[in-house]
Amino acid sequence: MTEKRKTLLRVRPRVTAPSATAEGQQSTSTQASAVLDSAHLGDIIGAFGTIKVDQNKARRTGWRKIFTLLAIMGPGLVVMVGDNDAGGVATYAQAGQNYGPHLLWTLLLLVPVLYINQEMVVRLGAVSGVGHARLIFSRFGKFWGAFSVIDLFILNALTVITEFIGVDLALRYFGIPSYIGIPAAGILLFLFASGGSFRKWERWMYGLIALNLAVIPMAILVHPNYATATKYTLIPNFPGGLNSGLLLLIIAIVGTTIAPWQLYFQQSNVVDKRITPRWIKYERLDTAIGVVLTEIGAAALVCVTAYALGHTHAFGNFSNALDTANSLKAHAGGLVGGLFAIVLLDASLIGASAVTLSTTYALGDVFKVRHSLHWSPRRAPVFYLIYAGLLVVSAIVVLIPNAPLGLITTGVQALAGILLPSATVFLVLLCNDKDVLGPWINTPIRNVVAGAIVWILILMSLALTAATMFPQISGSELTSGLLIGAGVGALAGLVGFIGSKLPSRKNGAASLPPERASEPVDKDTWRTPPLDTLPKAKIHITSRIGLTVLRLYLVLAVVLVFVKIAQLAGH
User: Fold this and answer.
1) 209, 203, 207, 161: which is closest to 185 by C-alpha?
2) Strand runs (DSSP E) across 48-107, as ranges?
3) pLDDT digits (tens, 9 = 90+) for 389-447
4) DSSP-derived pairing of the beta strands 44-46 and 49-51
5) Of 20, 270, 322, 411, which residue is least crowded by CB atoms under 10 Å?
6) Selection from 202, 207, 280, 246 nearest residue 479 by Cα
7) What fold characterizes domain 3-15+37-53+67-499+538-569?
């Protein structure tokens, strides 16, 4: 092995936070960029290798590129596999158990949505060096920043509760009582993150991700009809007609597949891993691999319950993941039931770690305290105190007897779907902020696609609202409304795209802030300047009105989701 390759792959036996001297040197470096935490500067230290901070030479050979990918990948893979968390397992199982393979098409449609959303946060993290919450506060002010972080905190706290619900249900399948299993899981999750080593945490995540692949043999064991599954993957349909119950489940699938916490987590995890613009193409590939794996896993879970329970009394009667595991054991054998419980436990642990970190990363960004896995609890006490507090509170809530666990899980995923348009709007606005992203801003076609994603999410939310407020509305009327809304959105997108192509600025000046437009542009080294040195973001009055209307509507939609959940609980 050459010396160059040794430099690329040099693995440190132990990674510690910067020493006092190194910290002082690194904090000096932050003066030229927006980076807030000195631990976010330095070598990229991955589970499978290290890339030196001064390693800038091109990697021309295939092996070199593979080794580089192995060292860099992680944030995209963790966020995507973590997407199939306890709520995801329960939601996909419910889709298969109640509707067979008919909703597989939703997963295929979500593949480009997942990648496009997460690719934007990859660029924001690598270029700015700060988390999503910090950028919203800095560019849109405290009012919108507070709304976004409060949304995230409440939704994440509820989501972590669902992760502990998943842990509890999985361990109860194996006969382990709640009062033992839940505290043990909480302690394990804290130990995963508190070692003061990003590399150790990432290796733990890789071990859990490998275990998550058990969904594939589980799906093979139930002997699915591949031709039928392929048909329903490619052709959208609404089994039994479009109604509020089916819409709630579809929005839950969207909410568990594309959740707001993912935006915050991956951006901060990219920053924590010290990925810079030079390595964005590798992180994009990491994200793409994660998207493929998560959708394969989701499809496998739908097929397991659809084909194992399709002709049994359990079909159409989903209540919670534990009952599903027991039904699988009764109708498909103990191996399938056991694998389902193991996948549920594994997914719950991955999700709990990622969702809790997404919250602590965001709060660390907002309050400008140390917020990195490179720090030990002694060096970053606030960061780990918040992390531990979320785990403890969530565990206590799940230990409350007779809670409607299945409805809580579905409701949280639906809420995530409802609130996602708001999060995505800020994401698109940030990715068009030339002061923040410079030459890395969105292209016009990216904006059209991202705008379409936001509009589709809003249409689904509107359809659920209409179905809840007017239960007599028919499926054909809901479908017609969605088609009309899609047509309006397509027309607006076309007008916006044409407008963006009109020559309104000099070539070359559109991708950089005015004061830096004359500088030679090296995309690989361009970083966001310190946020307090940037000119105030200009938000058009129409954008402000749109954001306000969207916020008011989403408040109403959230209330209606709670109403729908209460109605289902009463049946």
Assistant:
1) 161
2) 49-51
3) 999 999 998 888 776 666 666 667 667 666 767 778 888 889 999 999 999 999 888 88
4) antiparallel
5) 20
6) 246
7) Amino acid/polyamine transporter I (1.20.1740)
